[in-house]
Amino acid sequence: MAQVYGWMTVGLLLTAFIAWYAANTPAVMMFVFSSKITFFGLIIAQLALVIALSAMGAKT
């Protein structure tokens, strides 16, 4: 169980770093917010990834 929490901590730290980097890099912000297609495409891709990972987790 401790190993699971360790992986969760690593995942949260990685997510925090990527969010900080994206928020502080103008090029990334321009890429995300320059087009509605890009913005909503990223949201849809994120939801699709969650659904796919949930389905994979339910199989095991």
TrEMBL record:
The keyword Transmembrane helix applies. It comes from Citrobacter koseri (Citrobacter diversus). The chain crosses the membrane at residues 12-33, 39-58. Keywords: Membrane, Transmembrane, Transmembrane helix. It comes from the Bacteria. This is Inner membrane protein YbhL.
